[in-house]
Amino acid sequence: MIITIKDNNYSASINSNGAELFEFTKDKTNYIWTIDEQFWNKTSPILFPIVGRLKNDSYTLNEKEYKLPRHGFARNYDFEVIHQKENEVVFSLKESEETLKMFPFEFELQIRYTLVESKLTILYEVINHSENSMPFNIGAHPAFAITGNFEDYSLQFNKDENFETHHLENELFNGKTTFVESRIGNIPLSYSLFENDALVFNHLKSNEVSILKENNPYLKIDFESFPFLGIWTKQNAPFLCIEPWYGHADEKISNGNIYTKKDVQILNPKDIFKANFSIEIP
Questions:
Q1: CATH topology of domain 2-280
Q2: pTM higher than 0.90, yes or no?
Q3: Residue 225: which pLDDT band, with cuts at 50, 70 and 90?
Q4: What phi and psi values does residue 53 have, to the nearest 5 degrees?
């Protein structure tokens, strides 16, 4: 089911399958990339209850092993629409017999999309309905359309940074880092930046990043208090993903215990976790 919300000349369309944003338009121009399966078959998947890959695609809980696919399972399930008005919609996913085999917790994941003028805000709410504390990660993975020459674009952060990226090796962190070339918070884009997978930044001073096209504002992402930010594309692909995360892939040295997974979130019984980010078209 497709839900479209509107405000003046802006609109956003979300598929209830995965609660996945696939259009965010201004004057009918879509700023989310259109799927081309030679590159990627998603537009903006929800990453839950893990972000990235687990070592051996598995984890242990109370001495029992569970399997979880990369980025979890939320992106593969139909969400229920529990609230809707002209400029807002809320989707809900709860545990099922299938999810309990992968993730033995009773939960509710709500995704709220709110469009006010040029800004689309996406709010995540994770509710732990279990009797035990619940370990989880959650993250966003929106892909923005890139037209023309990729090297005409750059990323402008709202604070000057030392952009230290953490290296992935076979989709696990290997403990190595390097610094990305920048000038006053600006990173010029080229496909060579992504030859070894995503750029992954940890605890930036910035809370906003803008995509500039030929030094002009193209769109802006406010990632609030998210502690990790992934930046990713594929070679020659006409998109750029900007990904706010709570959590990340396993380290190569991970022992598999989900409760001690580095940067895992722990949610007490009956508690609610909230986080939001926004996308703004100038």
A1: Beta-galactosidase; Chain A, domain 5 (2.70.98)
A2: yes
A3: confident
A4: -105, 145
